[in-house]
Amino acid sequence: MASTTARPPRAPTVAQLRSFLAVAEHRHFREAAAAIGASQPALSGAVAALEEALGAQLVERTTRRVIITPLGERVAGHARRVLSSLQSLTEEVEAARRPFTGVLHIGVIPTVAPYLLPAVLRLVRDSYPELDLHVHEERTPSLLEGLAAGRLDVLLLALPAGGPAQTRDIPLFDEDFVLVTPPGHELAGRVDVPRDVLLDLDVLLLEEGHCLRDQALDICRQVGAEQSGGSTRAAGLSTLVQLVAGGLGVTLLPATALDVEAGRADRLAPVRFAAPAPGRRIGLATRPGSARSADYDRFAAELRRVLRELPVRIVE
Predict the structure, then answer these.
(1) What is the pTM assigned to this prediction?
(2) What does the alpha-carbon distance between residue 155 and residue 287 come to, in Å, rounded to a whole number?
(3) In sequence order, what are the residues at sequence separation of 6 or more whose Cβ sits closer than 8 angstroms to the Cβ of residue 31?
(4) Rounded to an integer, what distance in angstroms lies between the CA atom of residue 282 and that of residue 208?
(5) How far, in Å, CA of 177 to CA of 198, rounded?
(6) pLDDT digit string (tens) for 144-175?
(7) Residue range(s) defining the domain that contains residue 53
(8) Where among 82, 99, 134 does a domain terminate?
(9) Range list of β-strands (E), the chain
(10) Is the dihedral of CA 239, 117, 285, 316 positive or negative?
(11) Are residue 249 and residue 306 in the same domain, yes or no?
């Protein structure tokens, strides 16, 4: 336990703040160490050194879990702002030196990454050869935390980004949702189907934490369907379509995922909704006031150009 003497607290180091914030966000020392690329002993030592420097206990360590003390929660908020400010400083210097070069950490949600990353990576390779791109596939809440903390620079996700982190959203495109059924289903292959068909269907869902799950639930609720999908949950869209192919129900897929996922299962049939079809908006999210804002706008414009080949409606 950290010392609680009355001496004045010392200023923490950046490494100590980064280590403690990782623990506060992950509530697990091993996962926190992996997230920042440090060893677990080094991370534990940095957190202990921070507690010693401040003369206060920030973390309660038990055999099963990590608990952040009330003071620790407040310190985590300060650490988040300090690290974000430092990230903005380095961004400003880098942007002034050479626009859109150096390291860029982009976060992507799992229901976008497999279908858009090929176009994104091709664009970076062709147009930004000096950009050192690092891709992080995580769910929306984790991405927003990473953006606020400065761990991530820009996000590719469903808009509005929302969450506790304030973001600047840059729309790229809108896409429809497609209902996917087994081939023998009475709706298989139909077009112009009204949304209220969902009232009588067992719609399979992703597990909690995916924004696509929340979007599917919202669509069901709009037509009065209290949809739970039963006890079946899938961690990803590939598993979800296999469950449909196996006859366990139907599901909603974004149009950009249809060709890829339908190609993995030969027992799927798409069903198209009548206009206006339910859908989602995909775009970039950045920190407001980022020194790279102009670069992100140009990047978004280039992305819109290369994404026109997909079944989407570009938002200019």
Answers:
(1) 0.70
(2) 10
(3) none
(4) 20
(5) 13
(6) 999 988 899 999 999 998 755 589 999 999 99
(7) 14-82
(8) 82
(9) 59-61, 66-68, 102-108, 131-137, 154-159, 168-181, 205-206, 233-234, 251-254, 269-271, 279-286, 313-314
(10) negative
(11) no
